[in-house]
Amino acid sequence: MPALTIVKTIAYTLAQEMKKDKRVIVLGEDVGKDGGVFRATEGLYDLFPDRVFDTPLAESGIVGTAIGLALYGFRPVAEIQFDGFSYPAIDQLISHAAKLRNRSRGRFSVPLVVRFPYGGGVKALEHHSDSPEAYFVHTPGLKVVVPSTPYEAKGLLLSAIRDPDPVIFMEPKKIYRSIKEEVPEEEYTIPLGKARIAKKGKDVSVFCWGAMVSEALKAAEGVKVDVEVVDLRTLSPLDTKTVLESAKKTGRIVIVHEAPRNCGVGAEIAAMISEKAMLNLKAPIMRVTGYDVPYPLPKLEDNYYPNAGRIIESIEKIARF
Questions:
Q1: Coil, strand, or helix at residue 202?
Q2: Which of these, 77, 123, 137, 167, could form a disulfide with 298 (CB 3.0-4.6 Å)?
Q3: For residues 4 and 150, is the Cβ–Cβ distance under 8 A?
């Protein structure tokens, strides 16, 4: 089992699935000979020159083309270079990809994956550090998946490609290359809609995804209470069963995400716990998030980005409540 980064795992997994399934097509800006801006498609053009396509700088066109390919039986994997570049494609995703199964009363589905790096932590420029998951989670018909390790990335990506419906696959750029992990060469899938317990605990539950999982695990090591870290993996559909089981067990909740606080996915999780596990709560639900301002320029990023220190503060606060 080779030790791979998330970037290498994405490229390896795409190559493996393209070799197995000739319906899989990769398209996007510079995904061909250049291998993508982060090299997540590196080597694919050499292996599959007739199924890896560079596109114009037009995200709406990329996703619109991918929708058409999906309707005609292909399994397109469209890459958007950065999180903030996904916005021009929102009309295609919300008005068409997410609605076609319902619009056709089940006669058509859109087996499409839209991949893009998301989040901060790398001192990037405007439109390069956003966390837009709430836009997509709010849209019925779209599935939203966020891996947190190389092992998770492979299993989740294979499930996303094979899923009959459109999947938004958000890859946390902060840990693209900072985490290495043994990834089995043989294929395996991780079911969409199923969270994992990254660390078991009994005193406080921390719900998180993507790069925030590693920050939560660091925080768990820095406190005296026993923290359970739950990696949600899939934000839509959400594994409400695992969330509620953990919340009822500990009674103390911290939710962590990079996106701004207002109407973020954490707010929905908090509301759901309040509705279905209120009598089990021992303290107010805490959220550690980005702030309700545009993502700052690099010099101010460390003041914005959620980290283990901020998570520790919230854990200790509710542990004392």
A1: coil
A2: 123
A3: yes
DSSP notation for 47-114 = H-TTSEEE--S-HHHHHHHHHHHHHTT-EEEEE-SSGGGGGGGHHIIIIIITTHHHHTTTS-----EE
d(CA 296, CA 291): 10
DSSP letter string over 125-171? -TTSS---HHHHHTSTT-EEE---SHHHHHHHHHHHHH-SS-EEEEE
Burial bucket for residue 131 (CB in 10 Å: 0-12, 13-18, 19+): buried
- Distances, alpha carbon 53 to alpha carbons 31, 57, 79, 104, 157, in Å: 7, 13, 11, 29, 19
**pLDDT tens-digit profile of 43-68?**
999 999 999 999 999 999 999 999 99
CA distance 269 to 155: 24
Give the largest CA-CA distance in the chain. 61
pLDDT digits (tens, 9 = 90+) for 93-118: 999 999 999 999 999 999 999 999 99
Burial class (CB in 10 A: 0-12, 13-18, 19+), 90: middle
Does the pLDDT value for residue 1 go beyond 70?
no
Share of the chain above pLDDT 90, in %: 97
Mean pLDDT across 140-163: 98
41 contacts 183 by C-beta, under 8 angstroms: no
Choose between 176 and 1: higher pLDDT.
Answer: 176
The residue length of the chain stands at 321
List, in order of start, the domains of the chain with CATH numbers: 3-182 (3.40.50.970), 196-320 (3.40.50.920)
Active site residues: 128
Alpha helices by DSSP H, listed for 143-264, are 150-162, 212-221, 240-250
